[in-house]
Write a structure and sequence with these properties.
By secondary structure, this protein is α+β, with helices and mostly antiparallel strands.
Length: about 725
C-alpha cells in the first residue's frame, strides 16, 4: 500500500475513534485550567497574561501530555492485538510508522486550530480594547502547536526504541520532570514542554519574546525529529530484539544520515544560540585596564543609531580626539554587533576583533595614527544579544515596529583607551509612530524619512548615552505640588488613564509628600518625568531616580485601577515609586544586614499615606501586621538565630538566605523600627518634623546613615530593638 493511501486510511480510522475524540476534547478544555490552578506560570499582571498566556500555557502542557499518551497507545495497537507479524509481512513498518506520525500531527493541528477559534470570542471580550489578534494567533502557532508536535515525536521515539508502554511512559514522565525541574530553571532552552514566557505585554511589543520562543520550538523540533528518525532504525525485524533489529536497520543507509543531520542542526542551534550572549563572567579580568598614563581624550562624541523593525541596529560612533600618537586602542561592544569599518581622518584603518568574549563584551583592537583633533568613526551593525546570566528575565535590548528598548552597553562602543566628553550628539532613527526617550529625556526635534521612519536629533545632551526607549507614547503635562509632571504611557492605555484620572492620583501623592516631607529636592528645573514601561522589562513594580519614575504597565490595567482597596500591593506601588523621589538619594544600607535603606523609608511613608487615606484598620492589616509576620518568621529562622552555621551551606543557598534576610530587613524590619521611633519621639507630627529636617540637611550632602537618623531622633540603637 502506498504511503498516501495508508495515510488516508489511518487518518479516517483515528478521526472516527472515540478515544481520539476524548483526547481532542480534553485538549480543547485544557486551556481552562490556566485561569486558576497551579499550572499557571505567569502572574495576572496584564490582561494578555491572564487571558492569553496562562490559558495557552496550560493547554500547551496538558495537551502535549494527552497527545503523547495517544501516540504511545496507538504505537502499541498492533502488538496488543498480536497482529504485528501479519501486518509487517504485508506493509512496510516504516510506512506504517510514518503514516501514524503524520496522522497524529494532522489531528493535533486541527485540534489546535479549533481550540484557537473556540477561545477567540471570550478572549476578545475579556481583554476588550487591549486585545491583539496577532499576539493571540502567534501564541497558538508558536507556543502551543509546535510543543504538541514535539511531544508526539518524543513519545513515538520512546516507544519505538523500548517497545514497552510502561518504559515509554516512565521515560516520558522523566522528560517532563526534566523540563519542569528547578535545576533547569535558568537554562531557558531546556524547557521543551513548558517554554518560559516571563510576561506578555498589553500595550507594548512582544516581538522578542515570540522570536526566542519560536527559536526554542524549532530547536526542539529538530532534536525530536532527529531522534524519531533514529528510532526507525530500532523497528523490530525478523523477530529480533533491539540490537539485532538496529543492525538490520542500518541497511537503510539514508536513515542514520537524516537523523545525524537533524540532530547536528539542533545541537548547533543549542550551542550557537544567536540571540544569547555567551560571554562568561570573569570577575578577575579587568577589561578596563590601561598601561599608558596619558590617554587621548575625546573632545566631541556623536552617535547615529537606526533601529529596524526586524530588530537589527545600525550604528555609527564618531569621536574627535585631541591627540594620538600611533597608540593602540581597545573598544568593547556587544557580541551581537559586527564592526564593518573604522575610519580615522577619513581613511580606513585595520582592526582586529577578538574571538573571545569577556564579561558579556567582545573586544576590538586597532592602532590610531598620529594626529591632533582628528575624527575617529566606527561603523557597526547587528542584533544586541540577551544576557545569558539573566535569562529568562532579560528582555531589555530589542527592536521592533512597536517598541524599542536599548541599553547603553548594547548600542555604542565602550572605550578603554580614551576618555569621553560629558556631552554628545545623537541621531536616532525609529519607526514613524514611535516617540523616543533617551535617558529619561524626551526628544522633540525630528525629520520624516521616505521609508516610514523618523530621525530624531539632540545636540549637546549631558552625560553619556544611556537607556533608549521608543514606544507609541502619549505625553500628558500637568502640575502637581508646584512640580511639572510629564506622564508618558502607551496610547493603548489612554482609556484607563482618563477613566481613573491618573494625573489626579499622582497629584495626591505629590501633595501628601510635599506636606509631610517637605518640597521635592531631587528634580531638575522643577520637572518630573513618569514613564510606563513593558512589564516584560520592568516587571510589575517600578523604579525611580533623580527626576524620573518608571512603572510596569500593570499599574495602569483595569484590574488594578478598579480595586483601590486591594491591600499593600500594586496600588501602593504606584505611590511607593513616586515617594522614591524624596528618599532615593538619601538612604544607604548596611553591607552586613541590609537594614538601613531608602526602601524602608519609602515603605514607612507609603504606610502613613495609606493610613491617612484608608484608615488605621486598613494600614494595620496591610502593613503593620505583615511587617510583624515577616520579622517573626525571620527571627524563628534557624540560620538567622545561628549565623555561624550559615557558612556550612553551599554558596548558592547562602546567597539565597542572605537575600531573603536583606529583603525582610529593608521592607519589614526597618519600617517597624521607624514606627517605633515615631512612638518614642512623640507621634506622627513630631516624626514629620524630623523627616523634614533630614530632607533639608542631607538633600544635597552625603547620604544619611542609620546613626544620623538615630541622632536626628535623639535615640540610641537599643531604643529601636524589636522584641
Amino acid at each position: 500500500m502506498k504511503f498516501f493511501s495508508l495515510y488516508r486510511v489511518e487518518l479516517r480510522r483515528l478521526a472516527l475513534s472515540k478515544f481520539v475524540w476524548v483526547i481532542a476534547a480534553l485538549s480543547l478544555l485544557s486551556p481552562l485550567f490556566g485561569y486558576s490552578i497551579f499550572l499557571q506560570t505567569l502572574s495576572n499582571s496584564t490582561m494578555t497574561n491572564q487571558y492569553i498566556a496562562n490559558p495557552i500555557m496550560a493547554g500547551t502542557v496538558i495537551g502535549a501530555i494527552l497527545w503523547a499518551l495517544l501516540a504511545i497507545l496507538e504505537s502499541d495497537r498492533f502488538y496488543r492485538a498480536k497482529t504485528d507479524v501479519l501486518i509487517d509481512s504485508m506493509i512496510s513498518p516504516i510506512r506504517i510508522i510514518l503514516s501514524r506520525m503524520f496522522t497524529l500531527i494532522t489531528l493535533s493541528t486541527v485540534t489546535a486550530l479549533i481550540c484557537g477559534i473556540a477561545y477567540l470570542p471570550i478572549t476578545m471580550v475579556k481583554i476588550n480594547y487591549l486585545f491583539n489578534f496577532k499576539l493571540y494567533a502567534n501564541s497558538f502557532l508558536i507556543l502551543l502547536l509546535p510543543t504538541w508536535w514535539i511531544s508526539i515525536l518524543l513519545a513515538l521515539t520512546l516507544y519505538q526504541i523500548t517497545r514497552r508502554i510502561e518504559f515509554a511512559v516512565l521515560l516520558y514522565i522523566g522528560g517532563v520532570y526534566f523540563s519542569f525541574s528547578h535545576y533547569m530553571w535558568n537554562n531557558y532552552f531546556a524547557h521543551w514542554i513548558n517554554p518560559i514566557i516571563v510576561s506578555f505585554s498589553d500595550g507594548f511589543s512582544n516581538a522578542l519574546i515570540l522570536r526566542i520562543t519560536l527559536y526554542t520550538r524549532v530547536l526542539w523540533l529538530l532534536l525530536t525529529a532527529g531522534t524519531w528518525v533514529f528510532s526507525l532504525l530500532c523497528i523490530r525485524r525478523y523477530q529480533k530484539r533491539l540490537l539485532g533489529s538496529f543492525v538490520c536497520g542500518l541497511r537503510k543507509i539514508y536513515l542514520p544520515f537524516i537523523s545525524l543531520a537533524l540532530l547536528f542542526t539542533g545541537v548547533m542551534l543549542w550551542v550557537w544560540q544567536p540571540l544569547i550572549n555567551h560571554a562568561p563572567y570573569e570577575w578577575n579580568n579587568n577589561i578596563y585596564s590601561r598601561s599608558d598614563n596619558y590617554p587621548p581624550r575625546a573632545t566631541h562624541a556623536a552617535y547615529k543609531l537606526t533601529a529596524k523593525k526586524s530588530g537589527t541596529i545600525i550604528g555609527t560612533a564618531e569621536y574627535v580626539l585631541d591627540k594620538s600618537d600611533n597608540s593602540e586602542a581597545l573598544i568593547w561592544l556587544d557580541p551581537g554587533f559586527k564592526i564593518t569599518t573604522i575610519r580615522y581622518d577619513g581613511k580606513n584603518i585595520d582592526f582586529h576583533t577578538n574571538n573571545i568574549d569577556i564579561n558579556e563584551y567582545r573586544g576590538t583592537t586597532f592602532t590610531i595614527p598620529k594626529g591632533i583633533n582628528k575624527k575617529l568613526t566606527i561603523h557597526y551593525q547587528g542584533f544586541p544579544k540577551l544576557l545569558r546570566s539573566f535569562l529568562p528575565f532579560s528582555w531589555d535590548n530589542s527592536s521592533s515596529a512597536d517598541y524599542v528598548s536599548l541599553s547603553n552597553a548594547a548600542t555604542v562602543p565602550d572605550f578603554t583607551s580614551f576618555s569621553l566628553p560629558g556631552k554628545y550628539d545623537l541621531e536616532l532613527t525609529v519607526p514613524k509612530k514611535l516617540t523616543p526617550i533617551v535617558e529619561h529625556q524626551i526628544l522633540s526635534d525630528y525629520t520624516n524619512n521616505k521609508d516610514g521612519s523618523r530621525t530624531w536629533k539632540t545636540t549637546d545632551a549631558p552625560g553619556h548615552l544611556g537607556w533608549i526607549t521608543a514606544c507609541d507614547y502619549k505625553n500628558i503635562e500637568f502640575q502637581a505640588a508646584g512640580t511639572k509632571i510629564n506622564l508618558l504611557y502607551s496610547k493603548k492605555y489612554d482609556k484607563n488613564i482618563k477613566k481613573y484620572d491618573i494625573p489626579k492620583s499622582i497629584a495626591e501623592v505629590m501633595e501628601y509628600c510635599t506636606k509631610h516631607l517637605g518640597p521635592l529636592s531631587f528634580v531638575e528645573n522643577d520637572s518630573l518625568m513618569m514613564v510606563q514601561r513593558a512589564s516584560s522589562i520592568s516587571g510589575d513594580g517600578g523604579n525611580a531616580g533623580n527626576g524620573w519614575v518608571e512603572w510596569g504597565e500593570f499599574l495602569f490595567t483595569e484590574k488594578n485601577l478598579s480595586d483601590p482597596l486591594k491591600g499593600a500591593g500594586a496600588a501602593e506601588v504606584f505611590a511607593h515609586e513616586i515617594i522614591h523621589e524624596w528618599w532615593g538619594g538619601l538612604g544607604v544600607y548596611s553591607e552586613d544586614d541590609g537594614l538601613w535603606s531608602d526602601e524602608g523609608l519609602d515603605v514607612y511613608t507609603t504606610y502613613r499615606m495609606m493610613k491617612e487615606k484608608y484608615g488605621e484598620l486598613y494600614a494595620k492589616k496591610n502593613y503593620i501586621d505583615i511587617w510583624h509576620s515577616n520579622v517573626d518568621a525571620q527571627n524563628r529562622g534557624y540560620y538567622y538565630r545561628h549565623p555561624e552555621m550559615l557558612s556550612k551551606l553551599p554558596l548558592k543557598y547562602q546567597a539565597d538566605l542572605k537575600s531573603q534576610e536583606q529583603t525582610t530587613n529593608k521592607y519589614c524590619r526597618m519600617p517597624l523600627m521607624i514606627l517605633k521611633a515615631e512612638q518614642l519621639v512623640g507621634g506622627e507630627e513630631k516624626m514629620d518634623e524630623i523627616l523634614q529636617s533630614i530632607q533639608k540637611k542631607y538633600a544635597h550632602a552625603q547620604p544619611i546613615t542609620y546613626r544620623d537618623f538615630l541622632f536626628a531622633c535623639g535615640l540610641k540603637e537599643r531604643d529601636l530593638d524589636l522584641e
